[in-house]
Amino acid sequence: MEFLVTKTYEIEAIIGHLHPLIVHVPIGTFIFAFVISILPRAKREALGSALELALIIGILTSISACIAGYLLAQSGDYDSALVLKHQWTGIATAVLSIVAYLLKAYRRILIWLTCILMAIAGHFGGTLTHGEGYLFSGSTEQQSLTDSIPTIPLQKSEITDSTNTLAETEEVFLYRDQIKPIFQNKCYGCHSQIKRKGQLRLDTEAFILQGGKNGKIIKTGNAGKSRLYTHLILPLEDDLHMPPKGKKQLTAKEINIIHEWIDKGNPFGSITINTKQDTTKAISIISESTIQLSAPIPVAEHTISVEKNIPAADQSEIDLLESKNVIVNKIKEESNELSINFVNVKNLQPSIVDDLAKLNQQVVTLKLSNQPITDEFIQKLTGFKQLRQLQLENTKITDAGLIDINNLDALQQLNLYGTNITDKGLSYLIACKNLKTIYLWKTKTTLLGINQLKKALPHVKIESGNFEFYKLDTIKK
Prior knowledge:
The structure is a single chain. This protein is α/β, with parallel strands linked by helices. The protein has helices at residues 2-17, 19-22, 24-37, 41-46, 48-73, 80-102, 107-130, 138-141, 145-148, 174-186, 205-210, 227-230, 252-263, 275-286, 315-322, 351-357, 375-379, 399-405, 423-428, 447-456; strands at residues 155-160, 166-172, 271-274, 327-330, 338-341, 363-367, 389-391, 413-415, 437-439, 461-463. The protein has a seven-stranded mixed sheet, covered by helices on one side. It has a three-stranded antiparallel sheet with strand order 1-2-3. It is elongated and about 85 Å long. Mean pLDDT is 77; it is low at 138-167, 275-306 and 466-477.
């Protein structure tokens, strides 16, 4: 019996999820009927059969959409008051279309009324899906928060220390001025009062701390074990990645801000920082240079410093790489350091390694994610003495490739997510004394091997995902 109930629930859920697909059919057919209805009498009469067929299709599909919509609403993920408005205007649209079909003498005006009612129902549906004000928010929402996040307002005060010297402090409202705008632009569409996917809301302080159907999403003071953060830095193709593929993604800077906020204890009020000690770090998070990205990436806590003595790259070498769809950007305008991203490269050719090697003095960050990179490719990176950030997630490297990574003396961040690295490979990383962050999710490493690496490199932050890791607020634990 329990099995049958579960199967019934799953079938109902599938039918409910078809609602957005089904509902577009009656919209199209009723608009078609409206167009015919405004034609001159002679043309309307000539297209009488087409009009009747359109109404029949519209009636059947609108009824189907109502049924699917009702099943979708049972998830409880949407605001009940708005759901009722959408539901009853949708039902009224279906009923009025039936009346329009039956009462041929009044069909023309009834079709117009049906379309008006359909537009109202569609507006409520759009609000449920995209949030309030979606009609006029397009131009604003398309802006990256990299440009739109306001500068943190600071309230300066002076305090006297034990040596009678003055030290400035600043009052920072991190949640109000940084975190909330990110949630509003990127998260409220699915996690607010109107739509509560997975019973998770991010529009008030209490709901953020409460979490969703699967429990809390924040571990105070520990971003690495907070699903609010960890699901942001997964590869875009991962089922656990948030926001889901197809939704507007967070920038690297926005992810960095959320990481910092959680690590500071996710305060909702103000926090006081010392101007001379903490402000540099706070500002670096907000003014971090933008690198062209196709999706969010794991972001290190440190800021890459500018190396003054790096010679300028030959522009012809940059142009050659860009002609092969490699993204080349300067880390900062005043610096010669480069960020290289292979995200747009299709059918990677071995010769591109030789082209890349000509910029080995300038490359600071190298993103090879989801490319068919092998250990032989890594061997050719040994001359990249300025390389500090290397992303190898979902590549084909093995433990043997990590032997050559030891030669990257400046390496600070290494992403090995989704590779076949084992504990043997981790032992090779012990020689990388400048490493600050390593990502080891979905590798073949064990807790024992990770603990040994932590013991050898106690200053290194290792993101291993050894906590419970399941789809964010979509399935029960």
